[in-house]
Amino acid sequence: MTDTEILRANFLDELARSGTISDPEWQAAFRDVPREAFVPYYFTQRPGQPGWLLVERPRTEWLAGVYSARALITQIDGNDDNVTLARTGRVNGVATSSSSAPALMALMLQALDTHKGHGVLEIGTGTGYNTALLCHRLGSENVTSIDIDKSIVNRARERLATFDYFPHLETTDGTGGCPSRAPFDRIIATVGMARVPGAWIEQTALGGKILVPLDLAGRAGLLALLTVFEDGKAEGSFLPDFGGFMPIRANQHQANDVFSTVGDDDGYTRETTLHANLATNPADPFEFFAALIVGGYDWLGFIPSDGGPAETWLTQPNGSWVCHVTEANGKHAVRQGGPVRLWDGIETAYREWQELGQPARQRFGLTVRDGRHTVWLDQPEGPHRWGLV
Ligand SMILES: C[S@@+](CC[C@H](N)C(=O)[O-])C[C@H]1O[C@@H](n2cnc3c(N)ncnc32)[C@H](O)[C@@H]1O
């Protein structure tokens, strides 16, 4: 076996072991479609160093990254010149396209529950790797994929053609779907959405499904699997897995300039019993609920130069902010300012989540009707419902 074959074999074993890819047809797709053909380069960051570096074939590091479990960033700031610039130094900017983490792709493709003859619309073509997996499973003629970025679509088209895959690709804003190819049996979004566009529901066949990652300003990572009903309602539960995706470009939130948000407001300080991690760590079982209840928020860690304790700052676009510190004695304090007391909201959400028995994300679901988004616990008409903030 060559080094590449060994890496690919380990990659497939790892996907099978993780349990995300038990369906033999999806296993075959991952086996037959090599990720390396769709990710000839990617950007990476070194811990503690600013900016992005380029890693590209034929380097050993490149291939190891391709066959790792990682999402790989393939575009910065929507500008392809950054690839050339990064060959000679670091570039700065926001990630605007990537090849998603393979285990996340696998679990989403499986959850999509596709069957022979199904027509599928993918939002966010990116590298074309996920499109290729869909073509392998369903045949190119049944696959439509759209992306807002023309050069991304063109590159994906070339890569897909080398495998004799000729799906319908279009450069267009994904929020409008692809009316010329509707109705679809399945819609899968590989980009984070604050809301489920009405066009997607209209373009899904009755009984068809929409799988969409909800992005609440970078928080929550909820994967909603919705079924479309006759009355134009789309409804279903969240998957048990965390599914964080980069936001759709219109919602691309820049790293928040915390200190301009705070301005001259000194804020109001008090003790709290909660650790900041509860609200900032996606692996914490409460984090998604905080974001659902108070709306999305950005956060960043900050180490003051005066030797004070590490600070965790949370901010919302409305200018509300929190500075959370944990003192050496283990006590926590928050200073908050702006129009809404954000930490008060997070504490209230935490109490509510405790009273509900700390339900996991898959006990929640979403109903979308006439643009209204309602999150519910256990059943759509049950007593616990919240409008999406
Ligand atoms: C995480 S990547 C998709 C990964 C891709 N499915 C793959 O396998 O490589 C997200 C993609 O969504 C695209 N995107 C962002 N905003 C969009 C929009 N408004 N409409 C359509 N695509 C959009 C980006 O250009 C990016 O290529």
Provide a quick synopsis of the model:
With 389 residues, this protein is an alpha+beta fold. 27% of the residues lie in helices and 27% in strands.
Strand order of the largest sheet: 7-6-5-8-9-10-11-17-18-19
Name the average pLDDT. Answer: 93
How much helix, percentage-wise, in residues? 25-40%
> How many individual β-strands?
19
CATH superfamily annotation of the domain at 101-251: Vaccinia Virus protein VP39
Over the alpha carbons, how many angstroms does the gyration radius reach?
A: 22 Å
Q: Provide the structure class.
A: alpha+beta
Shape: globular
Relative strand content: 25-35%
Poorly predicted runs: none
Describe the protein's topology.
Layout: H1 3-17, H2 24-32, E1 41-44, E2 53-56, H3 60-66, E3 72-76, H4 81-86, E4 95-99, H5 102-111, E5 120-123, H6 129-138, E6 143-147, H7 150-161, E7 168-171, E8 184-189, H8 198-202, E9 204-216, E10 219-228, E11 234-237, H9 258-262, E12 268-272, H10 277-280, H11 287-294, E13 298-302, E14 311-315, E15 321-326, E16 332-337, H12 342-355, E17 364-369, E18 372-377, E19 385-387
Parallel strand pairs: 5-6, 5-8, 6-7, 8-9
Antiparallel strand pairs: 1-2, 3-4, 9-10, 10-11, 11-17, 12-16, 13-14, 14-15, 15-16, 17-18, 18-19
Helix pairs in contact: 2-6, 11-12
This protein binds S-adenosylmethionine.
Q: How would you describe this protein?
A:
This protein is an alpha+beta fold. Among the domains are: 101-251, 3-Layer(aba) Sandwich (Rossmann fold), CATH 3.40.50; 258-355, TATA-Binding Protein, CATH 3.30.310. 27% of the residues lie in helices and 27% in strands. It contains 12 helices and 19 strands. It has helices at residues 3-17, 24-32, 60-66, 81-86, 102-111, 129-138, 150-161, 198-202, 258-262, 277-280, 287-294, 342-355, and strands at residues 41-44, 53-56, 72-76, 95-99, 120-123, 143-147, 168-171, 184-189, 204-216, 219-228, 234-237, 268-272, 298-302, 311-315, 321-326, 332-337, 364-369, 372-377, 385-387. The strands form 4 sheets. Strands 7-6-5-8-9-10-11-17-18-19 form a 10-stranded mixed sheet. The protein has a 5-stranded antiparallel sheet with strand order 12-16-15-14-13. A two-stranded antiparallel sheet has the order 1-2. Strand 14 (311-315) and strand 15 form a beta hairpin. Helix 2 packs across helix 6 and helix 11 (287-294) packs across helix 12 (342-355). The longest helix has 15 residues, at 3-17. The radius of gyration is 22 Å and the shape is globular. The termini are far apart.
